[in-house]
Design goal:
Elements (H helix, E strand, L loop, with lengths): L1 E12 L2 E12 L3 E5 L6 H8 L7 E6 L2 E2 L5 H6 L2 E4 L11 H14 L10 H17 L15 H14 L4 E5 L7 H16 L4 E5 L3 H7 L2 E6 L2 E6 L1 H5 L2 H7 L3
Parallel strand pairs: 3-8, 3-9, 6-7, 7-8
Antiparallel strand pairs: 1-2, 1-4, 4-5, 9-10
The structure holds adenosine-5'-diphosphate and magnesium ion.
InterPro entries: AAA+_ATPase, ABC_AA/LPS_Transport, ABC_transporter-like_ATP-bd, BCA_ABC_TP_C, P-loop_NTPase
GO cellular component, one term: plasma membrane
Organism: Natrarchaeobius halalkaliphilus
Length: about 250
């Protein structure tokens, strides 16, 4: 079943077309990697689908419904998650509170200032928080203030925040950037577990080609805003257009 599709998806920033007429189809429980040189439009594509940016043109259909132009929290509530950037971690809150806020946001809409007063709901989301923290092996850091975590743990916290929104589809934008080899291995395992154990459809942006070729069912290749190739790891490995894009063509 097709879970996500885009048609003619386009984003102009002034004179620059960051995403140009992109058509993609993602099947349920697929693990997709999006690759391409810096500036290819990978992050912009994710920002469009998750509602962080409004498209200039085109349509985005999730689970049979157009989500084009919806707000990020509406898209989150439909089951589309993302592993947030470090900038969106609340640095002075504990690991637990950061993940609880994500759980709460997915169930009850936008984060509200009343969050900490709603004690019953707070208790209600804690199990999901603990499941998410267990998945990224951060249970022991549950009471640690987010800002004092080492860099790799912060990245894992982002993944837990993404999982806590209870997504059917999750976007991960370079989750292993800056991680040690051990943390990278753990994250790679987690990405595979998300699909196999949690049944989550995954769209991953990743620079490390070893990871991409190891975990992906299919790979989408972008260059200068356009989708230039898509296919299985074997298809992509031998594709001359892909070689040319990476060699600066
Ligand atoms: P990637 O993630 O593949 O490295 P991006 O999607 O971040 O690429 O960027 C694609 C292009 O769009 C780049 O040329 C980048 O400079 C530009 N771009 C991204 N975001 C903005 C923005 N908010 N305003 C203007 N230009 C942007
Ligand atoms: Mg990017």
């Amino acid at each position: 079943m097709t879970l996500l599709k885009t048609r003619n998806l386009t984003k102009d920033f002034g004179g620059l077309t960051a995403v140009e007429e992109v058509d993609i189809d993602v099947q349920q429980e697929e693990l997709i990697s999006v690759i391409g040189p810096n500036g290819a439009g990978k992050s912009t594509l994710i920002n469009l689908i998750t509602g962080m940016l409004a498209p200039t043109d085109g349509d985005i259909v999730y689970d049979g419904t157009s989500i084009t132009g919806l707000d990020p929290h509406e898209i989150t509530q439909l089951g589309v998650g993302r592993s947030f950037q470090t900038a969106s971690i609340f640095p002075e809150l504990s690991v637990r509170d950061n993940v609880d806020i994500a759980s709460f946001a997915s169930r009850h809409g936008e984060f509200s200032v009343n969050f900490f007063r709603r004690q019953e709901r707070y208790d209600g989301v804690s199990q999901r928080t603990m499941d998410a923290l267990e998945a990224v092996d951060l249970v022991e850091e549950v009471d640690t203030v987010a800002n004092s975590l080492p860099y790799g743990d912060k990245r894992r916290l982002e993944v837990a925040i993404g999982l806590a929104t209870d997504p059917d589809l999750i976007f991960m934008d370079e989750p292993t950037a800056g991680m040690s080899p051990a943390e990278t291995n753990m994250t790679t395992d987690l990405i595979e577990d998300m699909r196999t154990d949690w049944g989550i459809t995954v769209v991953l942006v990743e620079h490390d080609m070893d990871i991409v070729f190891e975990v992906s069912d299919r790979i989408f290749v972008m260059n200068r805003g356009s989708l230039i190739a898509s296919g299985s790891p074997d298809d992509i490995r031998g594709n001359p257009d892909v070689q040319a894009a990476y060699l600066g063509g």
